[in-house]
Design brief:
Blueprint: H1 3-16, H2 18-38, H3 50-54, H4 58-74, H5 81-88, H6 92-126, H7 135-163, H8 166-188, H9 196-200, H10 214-238
Helix pairs in contact: 1-6, 2-4, 2-6, 4-6, 4-7, 4-8, 6-7, 7-8, 7-10
């Protein structure tokens, strides 16, 4: 079967499940609301970063992005739906590629809309505190946040194909991000700069002092996502449906 019909069928699966559309809506709502709330916070801290403050809703919003990536893939393993999918598309690599496209494209579009709304809402609260932000920095933050959310959704999709379970994926990733990265990470030194979330979020900071810059940080997150996707593709090819 050609790739286009496979892609169309996978897109219809996403559009037909309200839970998946609701998860994308959660990415937008959570990120925007938390960014808007951060915009009215105290700005007298000498290390205040207006770009990160304006887009700080990415921290809770990424959980919804992870959930979207995991749910798109895990829906195939409910009731052995994967058997029907692979019977229709015997070439597993083609099917998996189409699945990843329907994870990446909606997440990226949602990310662009989310970052733009979050920046607008937060800047309204920050007022003159955000005057130092250049147009280039704001554009980098908006595009970078969209790319980051997309990579995290793909990271979750790859792990879900590996584990064959969305629950297992989210049970692994959410504690990792909330505990390992933000609690242990502050104590462990510079090595944690290369964790997928900490590396990727450099792009939403106005300034950066660590080992990675905005785009090299996203490159590190992309490597994590690529490793997860390769592992998921290997599992998909090696195991019976």
């Amino acid at each position: 079967m050609p790739f286009t019909p496979v892609l169309r069928s996978e897109a219809l699966k996403v559009l037909s499940l309200r839970s998946l559309c609701g998860t994308l809506l959660a990415v937008f709502a959570v990120t925007t609301v938390f960014s808007a709330l951060a915009g009215v916070s105290e700005t007298s801290d000498p290390e205040f970063d207006p770009l990160f403050m304006a887009l700080s809703g990415v921290a809770p919003g990424q959980i919804a992005a992870l959930a979207f990536g995991a749910m798109v893939v895990s829906s195939e393993f409910h009731g052995n739906g994967i058997r029907l999918s692979l019977a229709a598309v015997p070439r597993r690599g083609r099917w998996f590629a189409a699945k990843l496209v329907v994870v990446a494209v909606p997440t990226f579009v949602t990310g662009l809309l989310t970052a733009s709304a979050a920046l607008f809402a937060a800047r309204a609260g920050l007022g003159s505190a955000a005057d130092g932000l250049t147009a280039g920095q704001q554009l980098r933050g908006v595009v970078g946040l969209a790319v980051y959310l997309t990579l995290m959704a793909l990271f979750a999709a790859g792990l879900t194909a590996l584990f064959r379970s969305g629950v297992a994926t989210l049970s692994t990733l959410i504690p990792f991000i909330l505990i390992v990265s933000f609690v242990i990470g502050d104590l462990a030194g510079g090595a944690t700069d290369f964790l997928p979330d900490r590396a990727g979020q450099v792009v939403v900071h106005q300034t950066h002092d660590g080992h990675l810059g905005p785009w090299t940080g996203l490159a590190v997150t992309a490597l994590w996502a690529a490793a997860a996707l390769l592992a998921g593709a290997w599992r998909l090819r090696r195991r019976d449906a």
